[in-house]
Write a structure and sequence with these properties.
The protein has about 525 residues and is of the alpha/beta class. The protein is built from 22 helices and 17 strands. The chain has helices spanning about 10-15, 25-35, 50-65, 70-75, 85, 110-125, 135-150, 160-165, 170-185, 235-245, 245-255, 265-275, 285, 290-295, 305-310, 335-345, 360-370, 380-385, 385-395, 395-410, 420-430, 475-485; strands spanning about 40-45, 90-95, 155-160, 190-200, 205, 210, 215, 255-260, 265, 315, 345-350, 355, 440-445, 455, 465-475, 500-510, 515-525. The strands form five sheets. Strands 2-3-4-1-7 form a five-stranded parallel beta sheet, with helices on one face. Strands 13-14-15-16-17 form a five-stranded mixed beta sheet, sandwiched between helices. The chain has a three-stranded antiparallel beta sheet with strand order 10-12-11. A hairpin with a 2-residue loop joins β5 and β6. It is elongated. It starts with 9 loop residues before the first helix and ends with a strand.
Length: about 525
């Protein structure tokens, strides 16, 4: 048993013995199907706290011939797979945590050499002095072991992208690392399987990847591995019942990451909430690599409005395909928002190509980030939201208009009111407090000279009227109400029975004033 070559299973044993352990061993069934195929190179990128390291510990414990892990997998899901016994502790494994070789900048010039040196030293211990280490390094040694003895290897690499986070500006170091990985894996007959995990997808230069032999499973394209990262609704409900914790609160705080057929929960935060029975943001306590504020303060046109839009529960359309998979190459707000998806601050709906803030935990991180210079007036504007919502329920149109005027004045530097989208953004910000009582707003994009509706439907356990908001520009609030009625917008709320408030809002560009008209409406089924 070595540290890097054919390691033991102590790390996975600790995970299995922990107070909260969710069985994700089905991942092994999938990786078994990839062995010996063109799909044998997997790169899985997820934010911190999404179980990447535990997955690598599990795979190492299963495949490594340096340990006996039968008892650790007894009763687990994978034990039922036909391939389970075929591969259990029967393979040579090289397991690397790149961060162990690169935990400070002074290591950048030497970390590739040190990794190879340590692995080659253990290979000599296991296989004897049967090879020479030459200028081809580890790749040359493994080729010789395969040619002479038929030895093949499974590679399990955690924090593979560490160099792109620590050496963000050092392109030569990054390229040297990619060259090393390409030389190690591309076309190598000694490779049975490669499983790499990190925060970022594989770095691209222009439109091309230096490691194009890999299949990638990311936060924007999770493919078949989505359910092995993050906790599913069924898993969280079971744990909430076991620990006597409110599932409704758990859902509000930690759900919302869209990674496939359903949304998943942040596993580390769920575990902490179950253990400590407190719902709060556990993000800051473990997040050390970058501050959210650094990215949302970047000077890209429309970025701040997009952030405000999402604070109000809105979604923003992006193009993630041009992102270069690093932390420095930004050419548009889309690049910044795509990075925030990979870091776990946003989630991505692949069907609509939209991003949004997934849950209350991350909402709190955004609120902390915007409570600073450069976002002047935003927190004050959000604080007005509760009163504006109450005035809406009271059908006090004049007070609502007055509140919108104040929000406009406080955020004039952030919102361009000559832009039609900004009025919708301002309304979402004004009704920020609605998230306590309502589901996420249902929105339609602006069309022609008018504006489509913003609809707030109450949560199931909340006795509040639905809100149907119609926006106008240089017209009248009364005209907005007439349009709602004429076009029967209320019929859009299918399956809803109860009170509805029709809220017509007009913004007069000339005097920078809002007017508001509110009427009660009811649907009877």
């Amino acid at each position: 048993m070595g540290i890097y070559v054919n390691p033991g299973n102590n790390s996975f044993r600790e995970a299995v013995n922990s107070k909260i352990y969710i069985d994700k061993t089905d991942l092994i069934s999938y990786t078994n199907t990839c062995m010996g195929t063109l799909q044998k190179n997997l790169c899985v990128s997820r934010p911190r706290r999404f179980g990447k390291t535990m997955a690598t510990d599990m795979l190492a414990a299963y495949y490594s011939r340096g340990c006996d892990s039968g008892s650790l997998f007894a009763g687990r899901k994978v034990e039922k797979a036909d391939s389970f016994q075929m591969h259990l502790n029967r393979h040579n494994v090289i397991r690397l945590d790149v961060q162990q070789f690169l935990f400070q900048k002074s290591h950048i010039p030497v970390f590739i050499h040190k990794m190879q040196e340590e692995v080659i030293r253990e290979l000599r211990t296991i296989f004897g002095d049967c090879f020479d280490a030459d200028q081809y390094g580890l790749a040359g040694v493994l080729k010789r072991l395969y040619a002479d003895r038929g030895e093949r290897f499974i590679f399990i690499i955690d924090e593979w992208d560490c160099v792109f986070r620590l050496a963000k500006e050092q392109n030569e170091a990054q390229k040297a690392y990619l060259d090393f990985l390409r030389g190690l894996f591309k076309g190598a007959e000694y490779v049975e399987l490669v499983y790499m995990t990190g925060i970022l997808p594989i770095k691209k230069y222009g439109e091309h990847s230096a490691l194009n032999m890999f299949d990638e499973y990311s936060m924007t394209d999770p493919r078949k591995l989505w359910k092995y990262y993050g906790f599913t609704e069924e898993e969280v409900k079971a744990e909430c019942r076991k620990y006597g914790v409110s599932y409704h609160e758990m859902e509000k705080w930690y759900d919302g990451y869209l990674l496939g057929e359903e949304s998943v929960y942040n596993p580390k935060s769920v575990s902490d909430a179950l253990l400590w029975k407190e719902f709060q943001s556990y993000w800051t306590g473990t997040e050390t690599y970058e501050a959210l504020k650094v990215y949302i303060d970047t000077n890209f046109d429309g970025l701040k409005e997009s952030v405000i839009h999402m604070l109000g529960g809105g979604h923003c359309r992006i193009n993630p395909r041009k992102f270069q998979n690093d932390m420095t190459t930004f050419t548009s707000k889309d690049d910044v928002l795509t990075l925030l998806v990979h870091l776990g601050y946003l989630t991505y709906d692949k069907k609509t190509e939209e991003v949004f803030i997934p849950n209350q935990e991350i909402m709190q991180e955004f609120l902390d980030a915007v409570d600073s210079p450069g976002w002047d007036g935003l927190i004050n504007a959000l604080n007005r939201s509760e009163d504006l919502l109450k005035q809406t329920w009271a059908m006090n149109g004049k007070s609502v208009a007055k509140g919108l005027d104040a929000i406009h004045n406080e955020t004039a530097s952030l919102l361009k009111y000559n832009d039609e989208n900004s009025l919708t953004c301002a309304i979402l910000m004004a009704y920020y407090s609605a998230k306590m009582y309502y589901m996420n707003p249902i929105m339609e994009l602006p069309s022609g000279k008018g504006f489509a509706d913003v609809v707030y439907l109450p949560r199931r356990d909340v006795n509040r009227p639905a809100l149907l908001v119609e926006l106008k520009w240089n017209k009248s609030a009364e005209g907005a109400i007439r349009q709602i009625k004429k076009k029967e917008y209320a019929s859009w709320i299918q399956g809803y029975a109860g009170d509805i408030l029709l809220v017509g809002i007009n913004y007069d560009k000339r005097n920078k004033k809002h007017t508001c008209c509110i009427e009660n409406f009811s649907i009877k089924l």
